[in-house]
Write the structure tokens for this entry.
Amino acid sequence: MAKTLFEWDYSDYPGAKTYPHLLKPIQIGNLMVPNRIKYAATEDNLNGHDGFVTDAGVEYMRQRAIGVVGGLCFMQGVYMDEKRQGQGYVGQAAAWDDKFIPGLKRIADAIHEQKAVAGYQLMDCGRVGAVEVDYCHGPSAVPQRLRIFKPVQEMTKDDIKVMVQQHVDAARRGIEAGFDIMEISGIVGYLISNFISSYTNRRTDAYGGDIRGRMRAVVEIIEGVKAVCGPDIPVGIRLCSEELLDDVRGNTPEESMETYKIAEEAGADYISCTLGWQESIYPVISRDIPMGNWIHLAKRAKEHVNIPIQMAYRLFKPDLPNEKIGAGELDIWEMCRSMIADPHMPKKVAEGREAEIRHCVACNLCLARLFRDAPMTCYINPVCAHEWQEEFANPKAAEEEKEVMIVGAGPAGLECAYMAARRGHEVHVYDKRDVIGGTLNEARHAPYGDDELYTCVEYQKVMCEQAGVTFHLGTEVTEDLIEEEMPDTVVLATGPVYSKIEAPGGASDKIVNLLDVMSGKAEVGETVVVYGNRKPGIGCALHLAKQGKKVTIVGKEKTAGFDVNPSFKWRYMIYMRQNGITAYNDCDIEEITDEGIVVKSYDGVRWPVQCDTIVISDRGPNESLKKAVQSEGIELFVIGDALIPRNLSSAVHDGYRVGMRL
Amino acid sequence: MPVDPEKEISKVHRALKGAQNEIGKTYYRWRQVALEFAGEGAKPLDVALRAAEIFGKDIGKSFLPRMNWLKGEEAFLMILARSLAGLWNTEGGLATVEKGENPGELLIRCALDPWPTWAKEYGAPMEEIALCRERMYQTILEDISLFMNVPLKIELQKAISRGQGETVMKLSKAE
């Protein structure tokens, strides 16, 4: 008889009708899990640099535990060696000593308080570890492809035995802390995957050779952890279904499936199906990869093993996982980034509140932060990693109710609007356009998945409606209107002002505005110069290149896309190359001629670029209305691109923070 | 103001040549510093070869992100050889790649090398140039061989600094 930890009855949940397969129970080992929802272990860098759990980490997990509505909620992987070679993140939790058990117990308790199943993960980061020491460890000393990672020391047989025992000991600590299910991380270049891969395991002893030899250490870990867990605590493993390392002679997909079978034989109770390494040259989870792109791998995994298969990877919406679970091609829907963006995402699905979900935009800022030793944050969710700060996560009602005029219904204005209204203010949002969304209405037309950015506005609209925000669309705010309305507070979220070209010929009729181009209002010739090499310029250039136009970017920044986080920027660089876009960075337009422009580099070299059209994407802050508001003695805030042109994330974060301060 | 292409290109070309010249000058200035600190007992060739190893190790690391086996061994070796030739060209040399006599052999042929001129200017021996180039490329290949699990070797066949008119290096798989 399988053990049930908490009773859940979803019969009254609307989501049980819409997505019946997501809220069905499943047996994993001898544990009955009430539904098919899992928050997958995700590093957050929120723990102390000594490996101890912090309040921030506990509250972060508590919110995700609420989100899984009784399902699986995994804490981040713990490193297990005192030498810290297995530590891959500065804020990674540790479990190399019993002294860490009380902290780990706080997380298990927080998850249990929400009647969710507490998951614990063992994670030695292998060749991407040693974040605080000079050498990482691995089966073979294969040089690092990426310089940010430390040199690898080859493990001796004794080292391997110690490492296996560390997994067993750390598992025992997890059990003592109260966790219900155990997971071994063998993905993306961490130690287990290093042993498995022909790319990183060149050993000729019993721990190398063919796939069975390369799996030997993994088998020993599974068997050891199973022994300490006993029959009631299931043990699963995350394994690559495809390494995507063909270019460096990694495992074949057939070998990867063999690892699944061997893990099952060794006693694994489930497998979390993953793909790709941090060193892979292929994109896996960024916005340019279509939703559901990898789900076929779960089906293939299920054809090779009989234990439950779980999977994440661009499954941000419930329909596809529900369908695949129903078809027997997947067992559990995993989520990482979608629950970073909205910790209650699956709960909202279950409760029929999908319109209230703040969707992840797959920008990978969260990853970029982790790799740069910064605490987790989210591009789109201002509360992420602030869950423990009550004043931030649940701002108090305003002491004094104000009439707030927000000028601009873009993402900054909307975010500010619902937050201020929720706190009790009377909020009026004005926009000269007759639609909300600001410049996202145009930005969403950029290729490679940028339409997903607009989900932010859809969420904000619902939040504004619920909070009672009043909209005045198609109404341009003027000095007269401010004087007439005389609000207590004005928030200027008017968006940026587009730059003018300060060069001879700057009034040329070749010049058009980015927004007119993206919305299709402007006529654009066959050869185009996009002025401005930040994200909007790149999006516009790609949009035009996709129409077959020859595009050149000219911009003052040292590199194109310097405002895009590095975990996504590399994609843009590849797409620019693929679409034949040339970028002249650290440059300006010196002159506009009949034939095109003259580009001048920072050090004075000049050259001509032919073009029919020049698109202005370079932006500056918007100073309009500031003086008018100040002269009336009205409290004033400027947010988003109107303050300093940046990106969607800054708009949302600005809006939230000002909304909670009003 | 119309662009004068000749003027602009010559300006950029002058800057490139100036920067390339500084590569050699900077190397020999640092060589002098290293020899002073190494003391009288140190052999200049040993110091220079160690420098070649340090350069090679670092350059080898910078090659790794671009290593790619997807097009097979022949293409992999050709891309690697072109990268080694490109390195020379960045310094102001004129190096090209061609197939060797035997399958799997590639020749990196350098017809113009600024290093002998720089060595002469700073009083360094000519043979040092040949040996350092060979050592640097051998060290570059060490990490690449390990990374791709393909043993590689490179041998100096001829050297301008030995008065042989051109420098030729043979790249191949080690037995």
